[in-house]
From TrEMBL:
This protein is an auxiliary protein of DNA polymerase delta and is involved in the control of eukaryotic DNA replication by increasing the polymerase's processivity during elongation of the leading strand. Residues 1-125 form the Proliferating cell nuclear antigen PCNA N-terminal domain. This is DNA sliding clamp PCNA. It holds the Pfam family PCNA_N. It comes from Drosophila hydei (Fruit fly). It comes from the Eukaryota. Belongs to the PCNA family. InterPro entries: DNA_clamp_sf, Pr_cel_nuc_antig, Pr_cel_nuc_antig_C, Pr_cel_nuc_antig_CS, Pr_cel_nuc_antig_N.
């Protein structure tokens, strides 16, 4: 039997919103330590990893490991039936073919129960290797979202270059060019750790999609190293995270 309760449906809405632009369907792996999910997007260019430890929930019970295959668009439709400040309880029996979502208003005067059919998804479990990043940057999540939006105006490709002087985002196209550079701040809004300078090119539309997770966190962590995927991590309070990984673009002679 699996049961998890969150005091606010809004957080769950934000998590699903951060996933559904990249994934149509996914499997949540529930265990006695919490919920995890790993999946690649349809084009196999980016990978997303979700972790929610059991301490994040008001109530959490999982007697045995259970996998919940979900259609994220259907889950979004069910979540739209609830108010953001409703409490939500997710339940599934062992070997279940459906998951139950129960919403309860703050004053408990309104309750609503929904059932969502589970999918039997054949998803490979991907081992994400521990990577030592040459550059690690922490910056405000809203600033990163704004930069990704601005870069998209100029080009489909975004070059992210990091050195001891700062982190620079660049894009150039027919319209012109954009360069935005952030230096480390004394107040700690932007922190930059650099072992070796790195400059890599990425598909801007994926970066923009990752910023759907902005409402979940004040800060975003960016990890860069040659020949390995970019890491973009949004912490979920102190109890979890959404991590996006994006392979660098290979040099294209046509631009």
């Amino acid at each position: 039997m699996f049961e998890a309760r969150l005091a606010s449906t809004l957080t769950l809405k934000r998590i699903v919103d951060a996933l559904r632009e990249i994934l149509n369907q996914s499997t949540l792996d529930c265990s006695d330590t919490g919920i995890q999910m790993q999946a690649m997007d349809n084009s196999h260019v980016s990978l997303v990893s979700l972790c929610l430890r059991k301490e994040y929930f008001e109530k959490y019970k999982c007697n045995r490991n259970i996998s919940l295959g979900l259609d994220l668009k259907s889950l979004t439709k069910v979540l739209k039936c609830a108010n953001g400040d409703d409490a939500v309880t997710i339940k599934a029996a062992d070997k279940a073919d459906k998951v139950e979502l129960s919403f309860e208003s703050a004053g408990k005067e309104r309750t609503a129960d929904y059932e969502l059919r589970l999918l039997n998804l054949d998803q490979e479990h991907l081992a994400i290797p521990e990577t030592e990043y040459n550059c690690v940057v922490h910056m405000p999540a809203t600033e990163f979202a704004r930069i990704c939006r601005d870069m998209a105006t100029f080009s489909e490709s975004v070059v992210i270059a990091c050195s001891k002087e700062g982190i620079k985002f660049s894009a150039s196209g027919e319209m012109g060019a954009a360069n935005i550079k952030l230096s480390e701040t004394t107040k700690g809004e932007v922190s930059i750790q650099v072992d070796e300078p790195v400059a890599l090119s990425f598909a801007g539309r994926y970066l923009s999609t990752f910023t759907r997770a902005t409402p979940l966190a004040e800060k975003v962590k960016i990890g860069l190293a040659p020949d390995v995927p970019l890491l973009v991590e949004y912490p979920i309070e102190d109890y979890g995270y959404i991590r996006y990984y994006l392979a660098p673009k290979v040099d294209d002679p046509d631009g």
